[in-house]
Queue: 3 jobs
Job 1
Amino acid sequence: MTVTPFRPRSAAAPNPVATAAELAAVFAETAGDYDASAAFPFANIRLLHEAGLAALTAPVELGGGGAGLAEASEVIREIARGEASTALILIMQYINLATLPKGRWPAHLARKVIGDAVENGALINAFRVEPELGTPLRGGLPATVARRTADGWSISGRKIYSTGAEGLTWAIVWARTDEAEPRVGGFLVPLSAPGLRIEKSWNPLGMRATGSHDVVLEDVWVPLDHAADIRHPSEWEPRGEGQAAWFGMLPGALYTGVTEAARDWLVGFLKERVPTNLGQSLATVPRIQQAVGEIEELIAVNRRLIASAARDVDEGRPFTLSEAGLIKVVATENAIAAVEKALKLTGNHGISRDNPLERHHRDVLCGRIHSPQEDTVRLSAGKHALGI
């Protein structure tokens, strides 16, 4: 299949969402293979770059596509309909390329990372989670330490659940300094740096091709200016400026896309399945039609909710951290409920590994794992409403 290349808007490009839909059809052909092998989807990432989607959210003035959150959400949803792990890797890329130029990074570092993404399809993600700490969103200092040297920083520690690790060029390593009053933040580290190694530990139920392995750093040296954004702990917001809305919308879009793929398979199955005692397809049964309508209801709510919220963000309307988290929780729970309804309608066919529905179910359940998680989101929202 030939995929229409996307070019930045200045080149009067075709619609990037349509390009993503074309790619999704290609990705769907090998999604089952990646699920079975848990191999990193290098071929998918290459196609994303060749189609011009790898740097879609980078600023136009730096060579990117300049896409906002609404368009990025639609692209992620389409890619997830084809292969969900690829979409998650792309989420991390989109968040960083969109927000780093607006943050406190040295301008030349942001240009370096974005230029690498534009020219070479280089991937970037943040390594934050640790065995003892868990996610920093729940508080606490990382065990990963950056020690000041004469000409830079020496970083040592272990990160877990490092999404995309096998395919990344750059990592933003969350670490604390060895200063008397430690600062904490992101250090830009090339994955090729001496002393950095990947331990292949990722063997999950779903989202199996994200390559979210352990990353071990042993005296990894980076230049002084690669302490891209370090601050005293009290100066940090839970997600950093500008990222909360993206972390709320894009995972919701991803799992909505997985749900749409499950719905598409279900519709085909119901149209083709003709029980002998019925004499016509299951799609003609009113009870079945109503159940499919319930799935459509959940998908429609998700799509409208995400589109509306993302448009508010793009247009600069007020948007709170609490709202971002609640939208992520609602969208993922709706997606899970919709796929579970599909399983109920299909019985043994739905859980057969010969059909993709059981894979979609395993993938969509992973929506509950991503930060922010349900308990912290609802606790925060409740405190906000109560003025506590």
Job 2
Amino acid sequence: MSFRTVLPPSARVSGFLDRRARTDIFGAGGRRGWFGALLAVIWLAYLATPVLQLWRQHDQPSAVAATVALAGYGVLIVVALAGLRGTDPRDPASPPAADRRVWPVLAAMVPCAAVLVVVVGAAAVPAVLYIAIVAVLRLPARASGWVCMAVVLAILLPALAVPRLAGVPVYVAFLPVFIWAVRQIGQRGARLTQLARRQQAELAVAGERNRVARDVHDILGHSLTVITVKTELAQRLMDLDADRAKAELADVERLAREALTGVRDTVGGLREVTLRGELANARSALTAADIAADLPDPARLPAGNHELFGWVLREAVTNVVRHSAARRCAVTVTPTRIEVTDDGRGLRAAAAGSGLAGLRERTRAAGGTLTLSEPAGGGVRVAVTVPG
């Protein structure tokens, strides 16, 4: 069996850029960081007009300083938003760790912003907000809060003390606090949502166990009650009507065998893994976790290695529910292949599921091949192929 990662051709270019920048933003959606950085730089282009005005006025020192500061500021924003690791609001297990490279980037952004404000004037003050934005997106709550407060003071105090900056609206100074508060509310909400999804999945499993317990209780409760009554009757009839007593005892034996068969069927559903049964369990778990499930019809499954495919589906769906933070999961089955695809965080999140090692051993024992890959739109594809 081989274990390899295969990226579709449509994802090679963006995947190359992400690897070069070591992008790990928003889980599997790292390319969103590039999109956000592009939008930020486009918005920053509003400063091009006052900078060009300096060149038209032949103020060479000021024009050169403003141009260099603006270009450097834009590069630093791209590096911060597209090249540094961000916090993941969907992981409730532990607080996110800050990427240490954020601090040098923030330190370099400060002089660039200062030069723009000094040379360009009040028009450049809103650009200082990018320091707070980078801190909010790339630092934990407490550290980003201190940076936002520093940005508030850096905007408010000069605006009050320097006549040249008096035209800056006061509310601009308090925008970093607003941005920080909105981010924290969003992160806490996302973590609570993820925690709720996991708890719902666990409740779904507990509900299935309770269903089995109820089935066993109903089977044994009814059967044992009837067996007890018929046994007592047979004992009383033993000396009075031997033939009827034998008939009652035969009925007791039949009931006992039926009860034993019912218990074996119920317990066997827990021990024996079938693709048909795992499809039902997968739909229940994915629905409980608020993940859209695109599953094949159990009544139209093709002939194949359904026991192994059942194990694949069970482990893959477990990883999707526990680790992926996905919104959609799709399953396709052919006689020799099963694929489970999600749109979650990607291969790094899939590696968090240690059950893949056991699945690898099962696939190897069956002579199959396990392939783990990232679809073009992000997420993980788990595929197992067996000989035809």
Job 3
Amino acid sequence: MFIQSFKSDGLSHLSYLIGNRGEAVVIDPRRDCEAYAEAAAAKGCRLTTILETHRNEDLISGAPVLADLTGARVYHGPNAAGEVCYAETVREGHEFRFGNLILKVLETPGHTDDSLSFALYDTDFSEQSVAVFTGDTLFIGDVGRTDFYPDRAEEVAGLLYDSLQKLLALGDQTLIYPAHGAGSVCGNNMADREFSSIGYERQNNPMLQIHSRQAFIDHKIGERHYQPPYFRDMERLNLKGCKPAKRILTPAALSPKAYKNLPQQAVTLDVRNISSFLGAHLPGSVALPVPMIPAFAGWFLRPDDELALVASDAQEAEQAARHLARIGFDKVLGYLAPDMPHWAATAEPFNAVTAIDVDEFESRRNNPPHHWHLLDVRGKEEVDENPVDGAIHHYVGKLIATAKEMTASHHYTVMCGSGARATIAASILMRQGFQNVDVFLGSFGALMADT
């Protein structure tokens, strides 16, 4: 018997392959899913069953693709707000048996109405569960968000509380395998590790220290989460099933001439690191470093956008295209890896963004230039916890819409936690015609280090 985890970086998505006596099960596969079939074959197992813990909002499910690839049957929970066309509905009490192993289905609604968990038993040794695959119900250090049903806020928070009690009842010996790790948008305070147990979480998970159902509900209702627009597309695609990702995800290399001949409506994503973007970038491009694509691409792109990437090399372009494919952005026309000094030497246009340090920041704050504004693009909870005097707040993800409340001719210094989100925000503002924009590099982190 074995359990193999697969992590999708950026999304911090965790999926699992469980094998025993020649059969294998996959839980929550991602869209680029050949790795599961290959791993099962390498272990001498035939993939027979695919289980989904819920209808994902933040990534495309690979279940229908993997089912077509292997012939495995897909199972999904009830109450999915629509028919999951590629899956059979499974309910609490159903069991999947693989030799001496049993996976028992638990209905654990709250994060979503269709949420399931799967408790694993080894019948050769004990009647107690060995492990549980918790989806987005229970994380390591946190629990799932409950804001997807705003008109039922109290009800679904209470459902999550009840589901957590069901998981706790499995016993302290039970290992926890969640669907996400630290960095996911599906929770706020996940621990930076991918292993735990019911016993450890019972004692150390802050959300499990709230023993009053009503207090738990009140806490969940008070949480603030952002929902990128692409979540709705993921929900729709994960009902009908999405087509496979391209087998080869490295985009075609573009020459400068080919890049300039791309359709005018194509969106240029600069996926290099923020230092490269700040130093020199193509006019009109959006800064979106590879590690930040899963969290922010869905805020700025539409499903049908044609994309051109600016990358340091083919490997970086492939990583970017893979992240984009996992969240439904497939129309990557190619990538350009410009040598910016050579680009400039051939009289091609480029832009740069001034980066200021903490001394310059304090100088401006103490003696503000004419029409100068400090723009804080951190999340609302970050701002509430650590406000910065004099700053106006517009969350980076919502900046395309909220920039209409700002004056394009004014001077904006953008800050966040470190400068990365601020660079993304600066690129969005420049793309919308703001000319006098700079970035406080180091941002809140620099302010803390300077105190």
